[in-house]
Amino acid sequence: MEHLVEHMRVSFHSVHEPKCGICQKHCRSFESLREHLIGPLPKIECARIFSIRGCSLCLNVFDSSNALRIHRGQCQLSRAAPNLNISLSRLSLQSSSSDYDARMQGPRVVALACKMVGGGSDGSLDLCARVCLIGEDENIIFHAYVRPQIPVTNYRYETTGIRPEHLRDATPLKQVQRRIQDFLCNGEPIWKIRSRGGKARRLVGHGLDHDLECLGIEYPAFMMRDTANYPPLMKTSKLSNSLKYLTQAYLGYDIQTGIQDPYEDCVAAMRLYIRMRSQAHPRDYSSGSGEAQNRNNFPSWRQRELERMTPDQLLELSGSDYYCWCLDS
Hints:
Oligomer: single chain
Number of strands: 7
Distance between the termini: 36 Å
Number of helices: 15
Helix content: 25-40%
Structural class: alpha/beta
CATH class of the largest domain: Alpha Beta
Largest sheet: 7 strands, mixed
Shape: globular
Order of helices and strands: HHHHHHEEEEHHEHEHEHHHHH
């Protein structure tokens, strides 16, 4: 038991972690759980049962193959319709300031994605040239081509689809900054924004730090939900997965197969966020908040008491070292 207590002290296992529905093993990430179930060296009995009654997207195990078949119709999502995207983009670009002001009372959670062109002598400097914001309903809130503040030396057309004419009359970067910042803060000064009970919006995306840096926007980290650095969605090596991989592995369809659209990236990030937020965890803030007190639940002065506890009792004491998105619901 001494070794188990020490393991719990440093591992931060909690009820918010991905868990095998067969043997109940706790895993640090969904990638670790995936390897446990269907990886190169899976646990044999778990892999056998999972092959019959398990969903390869959400990694849940069901009571019967019939229940699994019904579930797959809901779990497998389809790619966002490009024609709808184009029409909504045009509406957004042509909308008046009064329409935009009306949206200020809109969704509490929004997703953002950018597409970058290249600047600098070798074209390697990322410059935001296109930006998109959507709500949970996947409708576009704001979309614009962005005119960078320095010359573009590489339009990266093969992936961005952006040509010089798209940026000739594009919205200046400063104006885009102001509109997005105002929309996110929703009337609250940035220094007054709080994680709960305020008016500011949660921001979802993939690689948000980079996108916001290129836009020149500051936003509190506790209001961001980034699929690139959310521990359950990261690799077992604790490196980020690409949005392309996450979408294929957890939503069941492909993105970024040619010219990339920021709307499609927004939709993928939002769907991943909603799927993670909808995890059936106990709504226990103390064990899923990732706050510092979780790290003090196994003090050395309680060692003898802790060694007499069962694994389940130790798990009740333990808390995660990251904020679980299920607490947003």
